[in-house]
From TrEMBL:
Keywords: ATP-binding, Cell membrane, Membrane, Nucleotide-binding, Transport. Belongs to the ABC transporter superfamily. It comes from Mesorhizobium alhagi CCNWXJ12-2. GO terms for biological process: transmembrane transport. This is ABC transporter ATP-binding component.
Amino acid sequence: MALLEIENLVVEFATAAGPFRAVDGVSLSVEQREVLAIVGESGSGKSVSMLAVMGLLPWTAKVTADRMVFAGTDLLKLSDADRRKMVGKDMAMIFQEPMASLNPCFTVGFQIEEVLRVHMGMDRAQRRARALELLKQVGIPDPEQRLSSFPHQMSGGQCQRVMIAIAIACNPKLLIADEPTTALDVTIQKQILDLLMRLQAEHGMGLIMITHNMGVVAETADRVIVQYKGRKMEEADVLSLFERPKSNYTKALLSALPENATGDRLPTIADYVAEEAPAGAVQ
């Protein structure tokens, strides 16, 4: 049985012009120890899909699905209180923009320890020891000192490592990484990806990698889902996707890579998908 199974997920937001469907009939699954990449341009519904799974969308969002099961638990029937107990413990998410995701008013140590207090029931000494262990595990230099640091006293790469430490604090079964290398320079991006893959292998987690970077997909994923305008356009193992893409949108993403340039300009998405509507998605 898959670790996470979703069938026909739909997410709608109320707008002045009427309901806006941000996610339209997406189905996916991820196995334990598997890395699933969800790729597509900004606005394709990647993050919204996973925020719906985590139960972190605003109350104004309407979320429906035929099936949404995590580790044998039906998320559609779960109460808000039980969902809160699960999120951060059994399933965790690394959000975009680490500098904005960490609370600037509290130290790094406090924010890691708070997760352990809420979900693991550890006493103060246990929380401190575990927080120190986590900072060492994610490669933060001078971890003892950094426990007392505030987010603004750390670099973007260090803040991202702290976010990862918070996400893995309770040894989750599923980790969702939402654009984990956004706004980081190339060398730090490589370090963060290597760290995520090492932790995923060590802890045996299922990992969902949300990205628009096809290079990240090639380097990390076992299987790939391509989204466009809220719909799933294609799903394949990573090798098949790069060698034999089926949808025009996938071909557009691959052709936009600089190494695939064939003329004086890179092709645009419009060059490929002008006649391909989401309704013709490859399932």
